[in-house]
Amino acid sequence: MPDTVWINGEYHARDSATISVFDHGLLYGDGVFEGIRAYDGRIFRLEAHLRRLQDSAKAIALPIPMTLDELATACTETFRRSELRDAYFRVVVTRGIGDLGLNPMLCPSPTVIIIVATIRLFPPEKLREGVRLVTAATPVPHREALSPRVKSLNYLPHVMAKLEGLTAGADDVLMLDPSGSVAEGSGQNLFVVTEGVVRTPPPSAGILRGVTRDVVLEIAAGLGIPVREELLNRYDVYTAEEAFLTGTASEVVPVRSLDGRLIGEALPGPVTARLLEGFQALVRAGN
């Protein structure tokens, strides 16, 4: 059955999957999550995602009441029950049920949720046409407030940025950090290509270090494509020969324009096309 949900050891369909209104994940965004993909019946980079989930939880002092092996088994079994071949997972750990105060010590047991469903952020033609971005006025949160390495349930700045882009008629947005440097999309990492060199903001720029981002860096290294992690500004994107977004949900998507400036001459660009081909081959191989 598609859209299969596991909550604290029990399986549900979409309509019966519920949590308490007193769960601090709902009340305060107090929790962490991971998005994971499965291709052709195989879960892609499950260990990397679950280790990042564990690190995010540890960073906010949120104990996960399961070992990573137990969590991996639960993911695998939930995927099996869904009977999907290609799927998107959302693994969520919240502080759990508490009261209407902020005190996390009053939440005795975390809530663990695994959702197996499907997702499509952009229609297939965007792989050919590329997505149109606008720069959002909303910046990414300051990295000293909450580390961007924590994949938390606090996504409201990114939601507001996405709303700006949709209101402006764009497909997505480019978010800057508080200093004006390029950070990321609404939920994706950004890459540009200049004179054959792939460039992307470093983790110190206030970005989430994406699993798909790391996969693309691996593919580029294997193909002998030079990569530099360095601070970028909008000029670097405007004048790039190619640009693309990466993320678990969006995968690898060429960028057609930013703020009305066309990027490159053909979509996807030659370097983006090689990386996209390598990514598609890798995920289908089950690595």
Give a structural overview.
The strands form two sheets. Strands 7, 8, 9, 10, 11, 12, 13, 14 and 15 form a nine-stranded mixed sheet that branches. Strands 2-1-6-5-3-4 form a six-stranded antiparallel sheet. It contains eight helices and 15 strands. It is an alpha+beta fold and 287 residues long. The chain has helices spanning 24-28, 46-59, 68-82, 126-129, 156-167, 211-223, 234-238, 270-285, and strands at 4-7, 10-13, 31-39, 42-44, 87-94, 111-117, 131-135, 172-176, 182-184, 189-194, 197-200, 227-229, 242-247, 251-258, 261-262. Helix content is 29%, strand content 27%.
Summarize this structure briefly.
With 287 residues, this protein is of the alpha+beta class.
Largest sheet: 9 strands, mixed
Terminal CA distance reads 26 Å
Beta-strand percent range: 25-35%
- The counted number of beta strands is 15
- Give start-end ranges of low-pLDDT stretches: none
Summarize this structure as a short list of keywords or feature phrases.
287 residues, alpha+beta, 9-stranded mixed beta sheet, 8 helices, 29% helix, globular
